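I hope you will forgive my troubling you with a question about protein structure. The full record is reproduced below for your convenience:

——
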Amino acid sequence: MRDPIDAETIAATIRHALHLGAGRPSPGELTEAAETLTGHIALLLTEARETAHASRPVCTEGADCAGRFHGIERQMKRGLGDSALSAHVQVHLLARDCQWLLAHHTARVGW
């Protein structure tokens, strides 16, 4: 059975999103990056939660996992804000959350 999570595509999205911070992307580019990251995070977060309830937990401490998952979910629900700076920060935070989830996914299933 093929893994439904395409780690290479997600990693490329993360790299692209983090690279956006080095320039002056348009609001549309930031919106697109945020939407793509949010989709990847939703997929990875669902899997991470399922894994946390199974025999191979994502975090060493269950409470740490629950708190991190809740924080990631809360971050996903935030908008880009009203300024270019807030949009840059939000995309960066989403990229880092996605990166953390992807790292745990690849540690469990390999790349």
About this structure: The CA atoms of residues 39 and 76 lie 9 Å apart.
